[in-house]
User: Fold this.
Amino acid sequence: MFVILNVLLKPLEVVIMSAKIDEYKIALMGFGTVGRGFTEILFKKREWLRETYGLKAKIVAICDIYWGSIYDPTGLDEAKALELVEKTKEEKILEKEYDAPHKGWNAVKTIKETNANVVVEVTWTNLETGEPGLTHIKTALKEGKHVVTTNKGPIAVAYHELKPLAVENQVFLMYEGTVMSGTPVIRFLREAISGCHIEEMRGILNGTTNFILTKMEEGWTFDDALKEAQRLGYAEADPSGDIDAWDPVGKIAILVNTVMGGRIHPKEVEREGIRGITREDVQKAIKEGNRIKLIAHVRKEGGEIKASVKPQEVPLSHPLANVMDVTNALTVSTDHLGEVTVIGPGAGRIQTGQAVLTDLIAIHRYLTKGIKFHA
Assistant:
């Protein structure tokens, strides 16, 4: 029996599953900010999740290139793993100090040989090749293990390769946290406005550049605003991924490929960052009734899908013009609802960890109902 749900420009694929999972055993690929944020949430809310959703989950493996790799088929002590990493900051500390029956496995071995039935892929983003996350996800799908990822790279560059693997192996591929962190924009687009046709999307999908532009409006220079963003942890020591617009390019590519039914590589998105924007430009725009924002834009033109990320002047009357600091937002133009804007945090340890949890709960709900959902 097949159940078809009509959503947006193309249907989601939903098929009956033969069995549900009694306990989710999770292998974490990456134990950085997002991996630890999710681990903290799971540790604190384990009983509540069981009582509220009937969801039983535990982390059985952690594999991180810096902190090390550990595996215990009965489940890890998540509080101890968090404490070791956050208090010592020592390389390979998990392998040195955590008493696990298996240590030092690489990512592929961890995915293949542990008893995990869900792989959470939260390693670093590579918008050129999607690696190493792409190999991790492909391996997990081929092994018949569900995947949750916040890694933009694999979804931006290889979604149309990964989706058939998920379908073939009867598993989920979930990626809510790849675009606006814990703000559920992908699920909103794919489910909440089911039946609407989307002709255009415009959004602020990078909090760092939005913070810098906000500070420049307050009178800061570009250089001073960037330094403040780095001091606060919004920007990396090498800020090019943000200020040269690579981060939002990856996100808009994901929306094109997964929501709009297109096929685009991040390198094919028209891109312009904010390095050339001055304090005077920002303040002049305000005087003329506009705000300069780094806008990710996707639209249909004559049967083709066009995508770009570049600074634009947005009228102060538009919701996007009033999204300040590190907040993200996406305005969707639909046939039935007109314009709808989703606003929320686009980054953060707990916020992105929440996206992982949301996807895990979604998998549980679908399996409990006896259906499988391919995003």
